[in-house]
Amino acid sequence: PHFIIEFPDQKDAICFNINDKPGTIFNLVKDPLTGIIVNGQTIRDKKIDPKNMMNTYFGRFGIIHAKLGIRLMVTTQDILVSERGKQAKFYWSDNTTVKGPNMDLHITKDRSLTVTLRNSMKFVIVLHKVWKKHPYHQDYLGFYTLDSHLFSQRVHGLLGQFFHGITFEVSDVFKGENTDKPDAHMFVKGHNLTVTRGWQKDYRKNVKEGEDVPCWFIHNNGTGIIDGDIGDYIVSGLF
Amino acid sequence: SVNPSQSLSQIEFQNVKINCKVASRFAHTVMMSTALNKANVSQEVSFEVELPKTAFISNFSMEIDGKVYVGEVKEKEKAKKQYEAAVSSGQTAGLVKASGRKMEKFSVSVNIAANSKVTFTLTYEELLQRRLGKYELMIRVKPQQLVQHFEIVADVYEPQGIEFLDAYGTFITNELLPLVEKTVSDKKAHVSFSPTLDQQRKCSDCEGTLIDGDFLINYEVKRAQDLGDIQIVNGYFVHFFAPANLPRLPKNVVFVIDKSGSMTGKKMQQTRDAMQTILSELHEEDHFALVIFAGDVETWKPTLTRATEENVDEAKTFTKNIHVDGWTNINDAVLRAADLLKTARANKVVPENSASMIILLTDGDPNKGETRLEKIQENVKNAIGGEATLFCLGFGFDVKYSFLDVMAKENNGLARRIYEASDAVLQLQGFYNEVANVLLSDVHFQYPDSKVNSVTGSKFKQLFNGSEIVVSGRMNDIEMNDFPVEVSAQSLNTEFLLKGQASTRDWNIIFPDQEYIFGDFTERLWAYLTIQNLLNKKDKGSAEEKQNATAEALELSLKYNFVTPLTSMVVTKPETEEKPENTLIADKLTEDERKEVKASPGFSSYASSSRSAPVNSGTYTSTSRSSPVNWVDSD
C-alpha cells in the first residue's frame, strides 16, 4: 500500500510504501486516550503478473472506538457495524445514510464510505472495484483520514504518528537515478534520508482515475520517516 | 540510420527488436533500436520508423547513457502556442512525414557522445481492419545496415480462433524463408524472425543488408452464422460482426467518371482500363449506370440498366471511348447520379432489397457549375437523402481530398486516394472489390441503455463481403457481465434479425498461463475506435456537433496518450555543446497535411519544458502543526 501524508498548508506531501507478506495486519492508528484503533489487513493480486513485483493492498479494515463502544469491520464485500452490542450490516451496493447519536455513516454506492465519529474522527474508506473476472487484480480499499485534530498527543500507528504534523527539512535537490524524478536530502526525525520526488494518487474525488499528488518518496518501507520499523506495527488481529 | 557524413562502421547497431501483440485485432507494436557510437568523436544517430497511417503513436523514449527522455502527448494547439515563434517562422512542426500510400514516417536524430549508446523505443497502436476476408499486420523494416541482434516477434491472440495465418516479407529470400517461424494453435499464433548477422548479409563479403521491406502477417478468424464475437473485459465491450455465408444483395451502382482536361493521358487510360474489369465483375442481377462529366454531364443511358452480358459489353465499349474534355462539374454529375437512383427506385426498375451506391472518380477541384465546396456537399447530401452510399475516389495529388472525404462521410461512404502510378488500375479495381459485394444494408445494433453506454456506433449503412463491423462501448457497471444484443438489417430475401446474449468469458481458460495481456486492451480499443469516430464526426454535422466531437476526441487522445490529429508528442532532446536542450514535436498527419508535408519535409527544434512533479528548490523546512490529511491507498 502507498501511504501519503499531505500538508495542505505547505502544499507538500510525504509518501512511502509498506510491503510485507499478504495477510499481514498493520496498525494504522492507535490512540490510547480516545480508545480509537484502526487496523488494516493486506491482500495480494489473485495471480502474479510475471512482469511486476507482488503488490499488496488493504482488503479489510477494523476500526474500534472503545469509549463509544463502536466497532466497524469494512471489507471489499460489506460493512459490519456494531454499537454497544447492536449489529448492522451494509453492502457497498447500497446508497445509504445513517445518522446516530455517536456515529454518522454514509455509503456512496460502490464507491466510498464516510464515517464521522462524534467529537473524535472523520474518515473515508474508498472501494476500488475491480472487474470480478480480472485474471490478476481484485477489489481493494483505501483509507483517508479527514479530520484528525481531536486525537490525543499519544496517537500513534503507521498513519497516526503523523496526525499532529512532523518537521522535515528538504535540501540539495539533485538528479537521481530516475531522470524524471529528482532526488533530495531530507532531514527528518533525526535521520538524513535520500528521498525522491514522485507522485501518488488521491482517489477521494475520482475513484477511477485519481488525482496526482506530488510528494517526497521515502524508500525502503518508509525507513527513517516512521518510528521503528514495519514489524513494530504488525498486530495479530483486526480488533 | 546514421548521418551519412560519418563512417558507417563507426556506429554499431546492436539491437533492432520489434515486438507486436495483437489481441482481438488490436495491435500494440513496440519498436526498439540500440546503437553504439564506437567513434572517438560524437556523431548524429537518427531513428526512423515507418508506421501505418491508421496507427496512433502512444509512447516514445530515448535512453542515452542511462538517462531516459520520454515523449509527452499534449494538445496540439497548446504545444504550438508554446512554440509560437518557431511555428510563426514557417517551420513545419513534425517528426512525422508522409511515406508512401499506407505509412507515415517518424524520425528523430540525436547527437551521441563518443563510445556512448542510445536506445530508441517507439510504441504505436492500431485496430487491424478486415479487408477482403483477412487482417493484415504490416511491419516495415529498413535497418540500412547489419544489426547484431535483429528480431521480429509477433503474438496474436484471437478468442474466436484463428482460421489461417500467413507470415512473409517482401525481402524474404529462399535462404531467409526457413527463419520465419510460425506456430499457430487454435486461438494463438506466434511468429518470429531473427536472422543472424551473417544471414542478413547481401553477400558473404559485403556489408549490405537483405532486410529491407515489409514484413506482413495476414490472418483470418473463425466465423459462424451468428451474432459474431462479443467480448466483455473489465467494464468495456467490443463486438465484431461479420457472419459467415450471407448471400450478397443485388446492387444499383452509378459510376460517375471525371473526364476533365486534367485526366488527359495516363489517368484517363487507366480509368478506361479499370472500368473494363469493374464492369465485367457486375452480377447479372445488379443494375448500373454511367455518368461522365467535364463541364457538362452526359449519361450512357437515361436510366439504370440491368447488368446483362449484352448491356455490360455495350457499356465497356462506351467507356473505352471516353475522351477528355474541359472543366470539372462535380455538383451536377453527382446530382444526376442521385436522380438516376431515385427514379429507378420510384419506377421499381431495381429490386426492393438492393443496395444503392454512387462511385465518383475525380482528379480535380470543381470549377464549373456550382463550385462552392460546402454548397456541393449540401446539395449532394440533400439529393441522396440517405438512400444511397457515396464513395469518392480521389485520383492523384491535385484533388481536394478533404472535400471528397467529407462528402463521402456525409453519405455513409468513404473516400480513398488513388495514387498516380502504374498500378492505378489495380487500385481502382481493388477499391471496387472491397465495396462491390454488399451482404447487408441498414445494419442496426441494439444494446440496452440500461447496461451499456458510450457505444461507438449503432447504425451502419452496409456490411461488405470480406469486411467487418466493429462496435465498442462501456458497461454501465463494471460488474455487469452480460447483456442482450439484437442485430437487424436488410438481407437478400428476408428481414435479417439476430438476437442473443453477450456474456463474459473466463480469459484464464481461453489463454491459460499467458502473460497478462488483457489489462486495458479492450478499453484502449474502445478509446481508439471512439477517437476515430469522433474525428470523422468533427468534419460533418452542425457547428456545435463538430465542436463537441473535437473536444471529446481531444480529451480521449490526451487521456490515452494517443498522438492523433488533435495532439502532438513533445520529445525533449538532450543538451549538446552546440545546442541547448531542445524539443521536437511529433504530429499525426491528416490527408491534407500529408500532401503538404510531402512538399516540405523536415522538422524543427524548439525550446521546451517537460512535466515533472513540482519541486520547491533550495533548502526549506516544513513543519506541520495543523492536521495533515493522511491516507493509505494503492493504484
Written description of the protein model:
The complex is a heterodimer of chains A (about 240) and B (about 625). Chain A is mainly β. Chain A has one helix at about 220, and strands at about 1-5, 10-15, 25-30, 35-45, 55-65, 70-75, 80-85, 85-90, 95-100, 105-110, 110-115, 120-130, 140-145, 165-175, 185-190, 190-200, 210-220, 235. In chain A, about 0% of the residues lie in helices and about 50% in strands. A 7-stranded antiparallel beta sheet of chain A has the order 8-7-6-5-4-3-18, with no helix packed on it. Chain A has a 6-stranded mixed beta sheet with strand order 1-2-17-16-15-14. Chain A has a 5-stranded antiparallel beta sheet with strand order 9-10-11-12-13, with no helix packed on it. In chain A, a hairpin with a 3-residue loop joins strand 10 and strand 11 (about 110-115). The mean pLDDT of chain A is about 90. Chain B has about 625 residues and is α+β, with helices and mostly antiparallel strands. Helix content of chain B is about 20%, strand content about 35%. Chain B contains 13 helices and 34 strands. Chain B has an 8-stranded mixed beta sheet. Chain B is globular and about 80 Å long. Chain B starts with 10 loop residues before the first strand and ends with a strand. In chain B, about 45% of the residues are buried. Strand 1 (about 1-5) of chain A pairs antiparallel with strand 34 (about 630-635) of chain B.
